Task: structure prediction
Amino acid sequence: MIDRIVGDKDIESHAGELEINVGRPDDYKTVDASVFAGDIDASAFQGSKSGLFRSFNSKGPGRYRLHVHVGAGQIRLFSEETF
Result:
C-alpha cells in the first residue's frame, strides 16, 4: 500500500495488487490507470473497470499527475474521504 505521499506519482508493477491512498482527489490534474488483465477500483475518482486491457482516465483542478499500471492484478485508488 502506498500512503500519504504528496506530489506526482508514477507507479508500475508486472503483477499484484496496488492500493494507493491518493489523499485529496482534487489535488490531481491528470489520473491514468491501466491493467492488461484485472480490475481498477478508482473510487476516489468515481470510476471502476475490470477485464482485459482496461484503462481509466480522469482530469481535475489540481497540479499533480498520477500514473499507475499493473500487468495482471488490481489497482485500488482511494482517499480517506471515500475509504
Observations:
- Residues 9-78 form one domain.
